[in-house]
Specification:
Length: 411
Amino acid sequence: MNVLVINAGSSSLKYQLFDMKTENILAKGNCDRIGLDGHLKHNPVSNGKPVFDSDIALPTHAEAISAVIEKLTSDDYGVIGSLSEINAVGHRTVHGGRKFFGSALINDEVIEVLEDCIRLAPLHIPANLMGINACKEAMPNVPMVAVFDTAFHHTIPESAYIYPIPYKYYEENDIRRYGFHGTSHRYVSDIAIKHMGGKAEGTKIITCHLGNGSSLAAIKDGKSIDTTMGVTPLEGIPMGTRCGSVDPSLVDVISSIENTSIKDTMDILNKKSGVLGIYGKSSDFRDIETAAGVDLDNGDLTDTANTDKRATLALDVFAYQVAKFIGSYIVALGGLDALIFTAGIGENSPFIRRAICEKLGGVGIHIDVRKNAVRASEFLDVTGEGSKAKVYAIPTNEELVIARDTMEIIK
Ligand code: ADP
């Protein structure tokens, strides 16, 4: 049984083909610059055939899916004999609105709900729909499943998801906290629970998904009870280019300074803020840490003489805000058993893990600096002596969760 996992963005489409008997990846790749010129990187990981990495015309998502299928089945780069060996397709879908609390077989109702959710995620849902439609066209008889980023957070209580604004916006317009990165929070918290004895009941966990987009979740008894992202993925901690939680009046203030429309001001808060806004030169944590004099391999500060002050400040602001939210989630959970770091920064940056944990000493959380001084290519326990909670770095695998959910649903 092979499952193709699709993650469609507005100009990109990432894919992985899983053999679900072994859960091994047969091939993976990504189409970039769809609608512009087009580029495809395809890696047939399972059989040693060469990697295809070239510019190729991709005017729409439909051509991108055709190109992916052609590569998956080709003599030179393929891993399967024909299209019939793709048994199901799982789509990463950003928003399930108030209707979907779990993954769902894609049918007309799901499409309708997704179309309705465009008002809640105007940047993401149209791209997800393009991916779904392109696959439907290319593989009309293959069952498809939508796995929603928001679904894991459906257990958040009213007191955490209702915004203190006129209630009619919730009742009439579905405005509430939804939260995102649900598949990642779920995957890494499940792994931590296994390491802590296997029983979800009674566990108190905070997961920090720190990537280009970042969010934290408070997870009690294996269920999300709060998360930092809101009705959109702009709320919460500062991110690569997104501001996170700021005074909402800034929209008015910046619009007045720049003489910009609300839409253009939101662009500033979404694309020019976060650590990029503070540092000014890059949103990539590798660049920022390097400019701040950090040794990327072990997280030590090596060069303190020639550091860029704004790079140091961007890292300080980031670590402070993450630590502050962790503190508030310890209150929400009534304690903490495990703190988990995941995604590009959480897995690969010993410096950021340490900078955050150094601010948590007052609540009894400590890391072992030596154990922490590596990248987490697999489960990594960095708990320090005397720490009241375990501290883990766990590589996330959202694609595998999507493939597993897809199997479960089509069964
Ligand atoms: P996305 O949200 O796009 O999936 P990722 O989870 O891949 O993002 O995370 C990307 C971030 O991870 C980038 O800011 C990148 O700089 C950071 N990152 C990757 N490797 C390292 C590293 N060795 N040290 C610090 N940051 C890293």
